[in-house]
Amino acid sequence: MLLFGNMLIFPMIWKALADPTRRTIIDLLHDAPLTTGEISERIENLSRYAVMKHLGILEKANLITIRREGKFRWNYLNPVPIKESYEEWLRQLLQLKKYAAKSTPLMGEPEKSIRTTTLSLELSIAANRARVWSALTEEMSQWWPPQFYVHTSSVGMVLDLRLGGHWYELAEGGDGQLWGQVIGLEKGQRLLLQGPLSPALGGPGLSFLHFDLRARGGKSTLHFSDTLFGDLAAGLGQRLDQDWELILKKSFRNYVQNPRTGSA
């Protein structure tokens, strides 16, 4: 049996590294430790107060360590958590490869190999961020297209919005289908899901879904990515790109912007 691993020990690392400014700070500290003032000088259009807030998040995630000398605060990169996170991802990939190798290939069947692909979408939605977040996380059954249910008697999609919560298809009689698990959460803004990609859907593999919601005036911008690892079927990336276009850009956006007509 393939165990897809527990990535819940890394949510603070992902949250810290999700912001481009904090990634820039990590890059600056890669070569040598810097004082907070030196970091502020090297990042344009960002106040010292904002830099301090970013450094505080990095410190909580144990990605940097602090040493004070008089009035100076020196910031040191701590690469251990990043290394451990990378090793956990690698462990899962090796575990997946081992699982894929258990089945005996048929004569003439090509050797299985681990591949990765990422697809990204960005969509502007004519609704405020609170409304879009509510529709995305609480009303999935209302806009999820019927053709994308995999269980024969499914009655809706459910997302247990908490760290470690399940995202699943609910079917009659208590049956259902697990789609994923919440492994990163910043309510109102960011959601990260990890789930198995079954052979029937183009696997076996792992799927990491990232939803990043930003306000823009009275509208919202949703950045979405789906990163897949595993023994992926040929043409899977292109097919999933088309599927997510239909799910998010057509069905979801139409539901939020035109609640009376529902999904497309």
Mind sketching the topology for me?
Blueprint: H1 11-18, H2 20-31, E1 34-35, H3 36-42, H4 48-60, E2 64-69, E3 72-77, H5 80-101, E4 115-125, H6 129-138, H7 140-143, E5 154-159, E6 166-171, E7 176-186, E8 190-197, E9 205-216, E10 219-230, H8 236-257
Antiparallel strand pairs: 1-3, 2-3, 4-10, 5-6, 6-7, 7-8, 8-9, 9-10
Helix pairs in contact: 1-4, 3-4
Question: Rg from C-alpha positions?
Answer: 21 Å
- Quick one: overall form? globular
In the CATH hierarchy, what is the architecture of the largest domain at level 2?
A: 2-Layer Sandwich
Q: Strand fraction band?
A: 25-35%
| The CATH fourth-level homologous superfamily of the largest domain | START domain
Counting DSSP E segments of at least 2 residues, the number of strands comes to 10
Estimate percent helicity: 25-40%
Order of helices and strands: HHEHHEEHEHHEEEEEEH
Distance between the termini: 38 Å
The overall pLDDT, averaged over residues, is 82
CATH topology call of the largest domain? Alpha-D-Glucose-1,6-Bisphosphate, Chain A, domain 4
Q: Regions with pLDDT < 50 over 5+ consecutive residues?
A: 1-9, 103-111
Count the DSSP helices. 8
The biggest sheet, with number of strands, parallel, antiparallel or mixed sense and barrel status, is: 7 strands, antiparallel
Give descriptors for this structure:
2 domains, 10 strands, 8 helices, about 260 residues, Arc Repressor Mutant, subunit A, alpha+beta, three-stranded antiparallel sheet
Provide a quick synopsis of the model:
With 264 residues, the chain is α+β, with helices and mostly antiparallel strands. The chain contains eight helices and ten strands. It has two domains: 11-78, Arc Repressor Mutant, subunit A (Orthogonal Bundle); 115-257, 2-Layer Sandwich (Alpha-D-Glucose-1,6-Bisphosphate, Chain A, domain 4).
